[in-house]
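Recap from last week: sequence in, structure out.
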Amino acid sequence: MSPKNGRSTKAFQSVNKAGTALSGRALNRYNAWTAIRKRAPNAGFLTPVGCHTWRATGVTVYLANGGRLEHAQQMARHESPRTTKLYDRTKGEIALSEVGI
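Predicted structure tokens:
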């Protein structure tokens, strides 16, 4: 809670059971995934999407706009830059040799 206004400082909050108001609790990953899956078809997605879809999109957009791999790695909280490169879709597709297969 913010001491000044009494409102929660969570960027992504869950909603109450009725779905009519923010709860003040952080949105957990299961609820985020459910919300994404539920809304994706209405947004025009023809294939299943999930949290990693958005993670890959974020990394790709960041790198396509001149971001550095090391910074994308930090933002994605990856231990290895090789993992972050798996999310980079700037080249369209990933060669198996890039991931050591």
